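Board notes, transcribed. Complex of a protein with 5'-deoxyadenosine.
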Amino acid sequence: MQQQSVYLETFGCQMNELDSELVQGQLEALGYRFTKDDLEADIVLYNTCSVREQAENKALSRVGIISQRKRDGAPIILGVLGCMAERDGKDMIRRHPQIDLMCGPSQLDRLPMLLDNVAKARTSDLAQAVSVGDRVALTGAGSRRSTALEAAEDSLEILDLSRAFNPDRGAKSGGRSAYVRITRGCNKFCTYCVVPHTRGAEVHRPPSEIIAECQQLADQGVLEITLLGQTVNHYRYTHGTAVTLDGREVAQVGPGLKAFRQEHTSAQHATGSRTTSFADLLEQIHDAVPAIQRLRFVTSYPKDFGDDILAIMADKPRICPYLHVPAQSGSDRMLKLMNRGYTVEEYLAFIKRAITLVPDISIAGDIIVGFPGETDEDFQATVELLKQVPFKNNFIFKYSPRPGTVAITRFEDDIPDAVKRERNNHLLAVQAEVSEAVHARWSGRTVDVLVEQVSKRDQAKIGSRGSMKKTLPGGVPLTARGATLDSPVVESSVREPNPEIPAQPVQLSGRTAGDLITFFDSPKGVDPLELVGTIQTVLVEETGVLSLSGQLQPPLPG
Ligand code: 5AD
Ligand code: SF4
């Protein structure tokens, strides 16, 4: 059979980006070829997100376009993956009968089987007999997975490990950066949020699986790993409770929030069974896989974040001093209606602890404006919060009512869109000032930068080579300490003249351990692409609202 080509587009959050990365690894291992052009694809897959209406609308409009092409006779297989398939599956297929398959986030490991089924149905007489209902392939029927048994059967690690087949996954930073999921689902039920409904209850992967995956990525050259979970600090694995007959530990449902109210240091569970807390997990990954130069994690929940985690962050040099810890609002009244479970005072107390215990910590967040009933006074309280916390950035969202949530049934979406927009813009302006001050603190200091790419400004200088990290010979880069994996410390060396090295310096961009975007120029005579995917030291000379910029420093002698 001719190799089928797949176009896969991702909407929404980092969870989805990871899912897409894993789906691609899995399908490539089975012989599917991926294309960046939907016009040449046999299979078009949209990995959708329900968190915000905007992302849903975008996905629906893409589905509409492909549906039209199918009605015009194109033999495309159209699949909708992710949260919209889970939340809205049946309804969506009724409205868009051109969709061939749907697959919720918890069932993605079965996607190859679904694709196979669609292909088989097409080539058999059964094709005519497939009814609309039959095409709703695998969704979790919108129900939360709640029992330990279901969780034990959860196969998320099968999907996570699927990238074992493909060493090229994780294309950011020249393949040096990757995501690893540690927890799926959420137990929080913030009133505005669809995640607990679409991704189900918290399920935690066993530490051994997570460490094995980090090791595997390190072996493939990955330098930076971002651990993923909706509330990563809730990670907790109780050993000996979810094992297969042959003694292998499998994913398990989280212990519930009570576990966090009792204590913050957690080698022993109340029952005496051994547990691995989030702090333990960070320490274990850090110590077991030293080739990972940067370990970070998102998203943190501002409650249940113990000093044990902060202490590990401060103590372990390769754990990034970075937190994405959404406040959502600066008004206690709004936080209550959102069911966030903390007050502004508690949020600020947590930030203070983090700043005190972790030197140079970078803090990012999310804010929702225009939640039902938000008065000018409530909004002003959010403005004040932004001024009090040194947020490096905040993602600011206008509230949009999401189907299936508590907020949509209990509260009227009563803030006019114009007001939401105005509040959004106002917060962006306030945040710009805060971000500028946060960046300014780095002036005159040196930072280590994981180089990601040639900056957009200078793409033209390197022509078509820009999208790829160059691996051919052409001079060993002026590499700083802790550099590439294959050559952990490389000093500058004599090199052959290389016609591909641009005559002028080229501007590169990357990120600091605290996730601050940093620009610097490649030195004369060095191929800028050789620096992509390495960690370099930069002396910061200028700072702005969005970034730092400075001079590349030579490696330290010795
Ligand atoms: N409306 C607006 N923003 C939302 N978010 C989640 N649900 C909604 C919603 N219904 C935002 C929150 C969350 C981020 C991922 O998306 O700020 O932290
Ligand atoms: Fe949604 Fe709240 Fe869970 Fe975050 S913590 S995923 S906002 S329910």
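Residues 348 and 488 are 40 Å apart (CA to CA). The chain is about 35% helix and 20% strand.
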